[in-house]
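Design a sequence for this backbone.
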């Protein structure tokens, strides 16, 4: 049997000549898979704000209806409970494909499915076949498939490699370092530092990522583009920033690290800066309090 595409496109709006004065084009129809998740829901906010019509396709594996509940009465917004491994026919102008469990806790739950859903990220550079490989291989395969659809099927595509991103609406207990430290400090538990805490990461605030994804989508370049914040922090430095932001009495507890933990992960965003004219604007010290406010409320509601 021939593989059926997951989405069918039909770009219905050809540009008309002799457009009458005062004519306003109908809103663009945009699909966001994974739109009830952390990154997706912030993207949906911005797309609706700029006048697009948005269809969210999500199976709520890690996403939450609460993340998009504020749009349910908006006539330009639709929410579909659907699993993207099943085909769906939608007439749309743009697809942002973000559906994929992003945290190790979740993507190891169903590795085969994780390989099927995709959106590229930095992990596609690594090539080990250990626990993380369902995710990394999935992203790598996705990039290849995306380019095949482009070359063979004439589909216009864009590819982003997303680096560590944080902000409001992140899953509380997904095991990522920023959400762990913030939730632990708010619950007055020690922050768990794996290994010696000298490994570094670069943390991007979610609004910067959303701006990057939108610039990429509307620009002329396919990519792949690295989207991340090059500011580098060791886990000990991150714990210190969390401590200053939440609780000066917060403590640290060292835990053993896994052998395959990268020592450093920092994006080179030269290409995105030059070709998309995009760069992150929000520093960790500016972004963290915005996330803490959301986490504090959700932890109080538990
Ligand atoms: P998230 O878990 O909050 O969002 C993923 C969304 O996809 C959820 O709403 C989930 O329910 C949905 N989903 C998962 N599998 C699905 C399926 N089969 N069908 C339909 N919906 C499905 O994660 P996120 O942090 O918002 O990540 C979004 C994307 O960005 C993912 O592709 C992720 O791999 C990528 N990414 C995120 C980060 C990060 O730091 N947050 C880093 C690199 C890449
Ligand atoms: N980490 C940590 N404590 C935690 C969770 C993670 O010290 O409670 C470390 C982890 O070992 C890694 C870094 O934080 O070195 C980033 O981990 P995360 O899973 O957030 O992102 P990734 O490793 O995918 O970049």
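Sequence:
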């Amino acid at each position: 049997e021939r593989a059926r595409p997951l989405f069918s496109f039909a770009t219905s709006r050809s540009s008309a000549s002799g457009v009458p004065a005062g004519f306003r084009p109908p809103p663009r129809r945009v699909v966001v898979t994974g739109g009830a998740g952390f990154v997706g829901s912030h993207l949906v906010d911005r797309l609706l704000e700029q006048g697009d019509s948005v269809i969210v396709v999500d199976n709520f594996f890690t996403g939450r209806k609460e993340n998009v509940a504020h749009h349910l009465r908006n006539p330009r917004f639709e929410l579909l409970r659907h699993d993207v491994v099943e085909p769906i026919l939608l007439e749309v102008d743009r697809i942002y494909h973000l559906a994929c469990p992003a945290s190790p806790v979740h993507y190891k739950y169903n590795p085969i499915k994780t390989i099927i859903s995709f959106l590229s990220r930095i992990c596609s550079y690594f090539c080990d076949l250990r626990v993380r490989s369902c995710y990394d291989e999935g992203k790598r395969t996705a990039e290849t498939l995306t380019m095949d659809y482009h070359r063979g099927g004439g589909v216009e595509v864009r590819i982003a490699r997303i680096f560590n991103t944080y902000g409001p609406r992140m899953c509380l207990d997904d095991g990522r370092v920023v959400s762990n430290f913030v939730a632990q400090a708010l619950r007055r538990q020690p922050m768990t530092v794996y290994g010696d805490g000298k490994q570094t990461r670069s943390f991007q605030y979610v609004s910067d990522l959303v701006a990057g994804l939108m610039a990429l989508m509307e620009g002329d370049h396919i990519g792949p583009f690295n989207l991340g914040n090059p500011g580098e922090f060791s886990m000990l430095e991150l714990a210190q920033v969390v401590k200053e932001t939440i609780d000066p009495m917060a403590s640290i507890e060292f835990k053993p690290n896994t052998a395959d933990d990268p020592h450093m992960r920092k994006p080179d965003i030269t290409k995105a800066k030059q070709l998309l004219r995009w760069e992150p604007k929000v520093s960790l010290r500016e972004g963290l309090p915005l996330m803490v406010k959301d986490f504090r409320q959700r932890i109080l509601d538990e």
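Residues 135 and 217 are 23 Å apart (CA to CA).
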